[in-house]
Amino acid sequence: MPLCEIAGPAGRLEALIDEPAPRGVSAEGLMTPGHGKGLRAAVVFAHPHTEHGGTMHTKVVYQASKALSRIGCAVLRFNFRGAGASPGSFTNGPGEMDDFRAALDFLHDRYAEAPMWAGGMSFGSYVALTVGAEDPRVSTLIGIALPVARYDFEPVARSSKPKFFIHGERDELCPLKEMREFYARCAEPKELVVIDAADHLFDGRVGEVADAVEDLLGDWS
């Protein structure tokens, strides 16, 4: 799991890459900039709200990244400005979207031949899916615990890109009813998995989130 830094607009962003080793391609080969053959996708995955303790090490972010790696993706997770060792201050969206764009640039330069996906959890899903919906390089959107009542997800709803959502049945920050209403407005193609009895952080059910990621995207092309 190589530790790296991204040249972000507010300073160097602390990041980690989970890289599978596809058949016939060495781990060293995957580290070569411009590579990407044999990868299912190159994925940037964003963490929850910085001011509430979200980092690239948040359990769901970690497990979702590992699940994506198991199905053949290279996954970049990073700390937004003001989180971990990344300098800068939290901006509640605009600055973090610029950080995410920098992460997409970094990953695209590294794996130019791989399809690109954008994913995130909670606040990170707002950032990732909003940027991913507008970036022509991104082909697939992955959102976990979307705070649809707190941020404007309508550009995501209008996007014709494939959208995969995972939500907790007992999410206290975004009730499932509101998520279902948002999902009904979303353009196709789309899929939603609800984790039984799970809260916003999926306490005690993080493994089920990882399973859902593999089930949803394991056969996706």
Structural class: alpha/beta
Number of strands: 8
Helix content range: 25-40%
* Order of the strands making up the biggest sheet: 1-2-4-3-5-6-7-8
Q: What is the terminal separation in angstroms? A: 25 Å
Overall description:
Strands 1-2-4-3-5-6-7-8 form an eight-stranded mixed beta sheet, sandwiched between helices. The chain contains seven helices and eight strands. The protein starts with a strand and ends with a helix. The longest helix has 17 residues, at about 95-110. It is α/β, with parallel strands linked by helices and about 220 residues long. The chain has helices at about 25-30, 60-70, 95-110, 125-135, 155-160, 175-185, 205-215, and strands at about 5-10, 10-20, 40-45, 75-80, 115-120, 140-145, 165-170, 190-195.
Features:
33% helix; 221 residues; 7 helices; Rossmann fold; 8 strands; alpha/beta; 23% strand; eight-stranded mixed β-sheet; single chain
Summarize, please.
The protein is α/β, with parallel strands linked by helices and 221 residues long. It has helices at residues 27-30, 59-70, 94-110, 123-134, 154-158, 176-185, 206-217; strands at 3-8, 11-18, 41-46, 73-78, 116-121, 138-144, 163-168, 190-195. The chain has a single domain (3-217), classed as Rossmann fold (3-Layer(aba) Sandwich).
Write the layout of secondary structure elements.
Blueprint (H helix, E strand, L loop, with lengths): L2 E6 L2 E8 L8 H4 L10 E6 L12 H12 L2 E6 L15 H17 L5 E6 L1 H12 L3 E7 L9 H5 L4 E6 L7 H10 L4 E6 L10 H12 L4
Parallel strand pairs: 3-4, 3-5, 5-6, 6-7, 7-8
Antiparallel strand pairs: 1-2, 2-4
Helix pairs in contact: 2-7, 3-4
